[in-house]
Amino acid sequence: MDFNSRKKKKKNNDLYEENINIYLEENDNYILDLEKKVQSLKLIGSNLRDEVRTSNSLLDNLSDRMENVNKKLSGVYRRVKNILRTKVMKICNGKYETFIYVYSH
């Protein structure tokens, strides 16, 4: 092997090494960019989890309140129904011949 062919081979190796270094640097940059995106997605996922937990808590509280309102309204409905029955009985036993229809569930 003569001097020129060795020099050419060395030059080819240098180009190869240089290209490898460029590709490695590009890969490192892609990896860093990917890490940033993964961290962003992780933060978004964490925020979503917190929002879901907060929403579930609020919905549970709302459900409990609605249940209490339903119980209270059922009691009020029952009382109104009893009052109307009493009024109907008084009207039927008195002078008035009036029929009142009371709707029941």
Counting DSSP H or I runs of 4 or more residues, the number of helices is 1
Query: Per DSSP, what share of the residues sits in E-state strands of 2 or more residues?
Result: under 5%
Low-confidence stretches: none
The proportion of residues forming helix, as a percent range, comes to over 70%
Sheet with the most strands?
none
Q: How would you sum up the global shape?
A: rod-shaped
- Give the helices and strands as they follow along the chain: H
Structural class: mainly alpha
Number of strands: 0
Residue-averaged pLDDT: 83
**Radius of gyration, rounded?**
42 Å
Termini separation comes to 106 Å
Protein name: t-SNARE coiled-coil homology domain-containing protein
Organism: Plasmodium falciparum (isolate NF54)
GO cellular component, one term: endomembrane system
InterPro entries: T_SNARE_dom
What keywords describe this structure?
105 residues, mainly alpha, 1 helix, rod-shaped
Overview of this protein structure:
By secondary structure, the protein is mainly α. 87% of the residues lie in helices and 0% in strands. It starts with a helix and ends in a 12-residue tail after the last helix. 0% of the residues are buried.
Summary, kept brief:
It is a single-pass membrane protein. This protein is an all-alpha fold and 105 residues long. Helices cover 87% and strands 0% of the residues.
Write the layout of secondary structure elements.
Blueprint: H1 3-93
